[in-house]
Specification:
The protein has 150 residues and is of the alpha/beta class. It has one domain (2-8, 22-148): Rossmann fold, CATH 3.40.50. Helix content is 29%, strand content 26%. The chain has helices at 27-42, 56-63, 81-88, 105-115, and strands spanning 2-7, 48-52, 69-71, 96-101, 128-136, 139-148. It has a 6-stranded mixed beta sheet, with helices on both faces. Helix 3 packs across helix 4 (105-115).
Length: 150
């Protein structure tokens, strides 16, 4: 299984009556999302499913990829690592899952997958961390395949 953690791109700051969940991407954020989406398309991932937080900025980031997007409430602001793992069906889902979500949950999940414990790691805006789960010599391994930032 391939699991790609994709942090939403740069969004407008909150202000006035706009709720945090309704913040949209800035022009720079859209450019960031497009650059990362192009990189992801070049990877030719098998059987890709894209899951997004319901926030506007995450959904806008995910939609740039041009694939169908499923909105998952458990990927929203304040998500826990267990929420992200459950949404992705890690490590059992066949193919690739792209989770578009938020900090600090994405960084904590990256830490858990690599170090075995949650820590507050930072994933840059629009950045991706790509993990693969494999079995070698009857041992399950998690491998960091790539980190890509715009």
């Amino acid at each position: 299984m391939d699991l790609i953690l994709w942090r939403h791109a740069e969004a407008k700051e909150t202000g006035g009556p706009i709720a945090d969940t309704d913040r949209e991407l800035t022009a720079q954020g859209l450019k960031q999302a497009q650059e990362v989406a192009e990189w992801l398309r070049r990877q030719r991932l098998p059987r890709v499913a894209v899951l997004s937080s319901p926030t506007r900025r995450a959904l806008q980031t995910a939609e740039v990829l041009g694939l169908p997007v499923k909105i998952k409430k458990q990927l929203g602001i304040g998500a826990a690592t267990a929420d992200l793992l459950g949404a992705a069906d890690w490590p059992d889902h066949p193919g690739a899952i792209i989770l578009v979500s938020h900090q600090p949950a994405l960084g904590r999940l990256a830490s858990l997958l690599l170090a075995g414990t949650e820590a507050d790691w930072t994933i840059k805006k629009a950045g991706i961390w790509w993990f693969t789960n494999r079995v070698r010599h009857d041992e399950t391994q998690t491998v960091l395949r790539a980190v890509h930032n715009p």
